[in-house]
Every structure is written in C-alpha cells, then in structure tokens.
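Appendix B: complex inputs.
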Amino acid sequence: MPLADYHEQFAAVYDLLYARRDVTGEARFAVELLGLAGTMHGSRHVLDFGCGTGSHALAFGEMGVNVTGFDRSEAMIAQARAKTPALESAKVSFASGSLASFCAQLDGRRFDGAVSFFNVLNCIETPGEMVEHLRLLHSRLMPGGRMLIDVWNGAAVFVDEPRPAVKHFAVQGQPDCETVRITTPTLDRIQQCCTLHYRILNLDRRTGNFTEFESVHKLRFLTPVQYRHLFELAGLEIVDEFPKTRPKTPVAEHDWYISYLVRRSA
Ligand SMILES: C[S@@+](CC[C@H](N)C(=O)[O-])C[C@H]1O[C@@H](n2cnc3c(N)ncnc32)[C@H](O)[C@@H]1O
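Resulting structure:
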C-alpha cells in the first residue's frame, strides 16, 4: 500500500484519535496567556497556525474571539470547514497553502495574537525553514502581540525515546466500529528527527468491512537552547518557556512537551 501524503488521509481520523483532548481548556489557557482575556474579544483576532481540523478555532469562535485557522493541508482544512459551517462567516475563517502566500494575501492585516498547538513547528523540515516561518508569523503580529507555541523537547526525546505503541479507539455512537493505531517510531539522534510510521486500521463489525492506511509523520525536534536561538533569529522575544500547561515552571529533561510564549517587540 502506498504511503499517504503527510496528514492527507490522516485528516479523516484525526478527531477520533484526539477526541480526549480538552480543546476548549487549551483555547481558554491560550487566550489568558496571550493577554486577551477580559478584553473586548469581539475586536480581537487570533491566528491559529497549523490549525488541523479546526477544533481550537471553533473553541475560540465560541468564546467570541475572531480566529483565522491556517494549515498547509487542504484535507485538514476541509474537515475544519465541515465542522464549522455556521460559524465560519462570522467569527471563524480558514485558509490552506503555504504560509508565505497566506501572509501575502493578508494585505497588511495583522493579528492580536497567535497560537500553534501540538508541535506544528516540528513538522517543518529544517531549522532554517522554521526561522523563515517564525519570521513570517512575527511580521503578521501587532506590536506587542504574543504567540503560544507547543513543541517537542529534544532533551526529553533523547532521555526517554519514543517507543512502538498500539492504541484502540472506540467510535462514539457507533459501538460496532473500532479503530486501531499502530505507531512505529524511528529516531535519528544525529539529524534530531523522529519518523512516526502510523498504520491505521478501521473495523466495522456490522458489515465486516475492514480498511487500513499508512501515514508517515516526520518530526524535527530541537533542544531548548536551539529553540531559543530560532526565536532570537526571528526577532521574537521569549516571555516564558515552560512544560506544557505549567507557566513559569523551569523545563526539565523529562518534560516531553514544552511551550514558548513569545512576543513581537513593540
Ligand atoms: C499535529 S497536527 C496539530 C493540529 C492542531 N494544531 C491541533 O492542535 O490538533 C500538525 C498540523 O500542522 C500542519 N502543518 C505542518 N506544517 C505546516 C506548515 N508549514 N504550515 C501550516 N501548517 C502546517 C499539519 O498539516 C497538521 O495539520
């Protein structure tokens, strides 16, 4: 079976695989850290970089914050649009493609804040391209505008390396359907790259139908010292570096997921 393009087939099962996340809590937390809580939400506009299937964008919209969800994957954006038909014109909009062309189309418009949840930066091939993306995001922030970015902590990947895993997912409201994800990671410590090979199996016991596909996700992980350097190169000031969800806490080598709160200087 041919390996699917990154995230294209994955988009259809993404919400099932991550159904247990507290997306609304994450969006609320971000609004707080971006300094937008208690402000006139309706006049604030947030960019969700690498928005995936748009769950956070939907949560921002429900909180009354204007949001534009951007993702390079058309399949992800198609899922996002299908979920937010009523909201899309009012509070929530989506776009796909390259970040450079998206920014060019903005016609000088800027965002009050930005988020990038769940390791989007690590999906970018090289550190040089990460800096280019961060520079573009910087250019689209209002002076003083903040951005919250989640990343993999390379130090943690080295001490607690990813292992093969099998996970079962029940499809809500469809007791006869089951999905299984088999993850096989390959770690390249020299290139600081982890290739996650996913095999997704779907079984419908009622019809006996069984489908499967494969998807490969390459993640480039950096250490905190390296991330700091990237932000500096992109002209973004670090406000806080912390283990995910625990602001003002020093990052330790076992903290797999870390967040950066950065700021465009005034
Ligand atoms: C792990 S998913 C995270 C999705 C979403 N932010 C969430 O929290 O569920 C990573 C997403 O980043 C997108 N992505 C990767 N590289 C990107 C890039 N250079 N520009 C825009 N989106 C990108 C992928 O298409 C994918 O939807």
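The chain has two domains: 3-152+222-264, 157-220.
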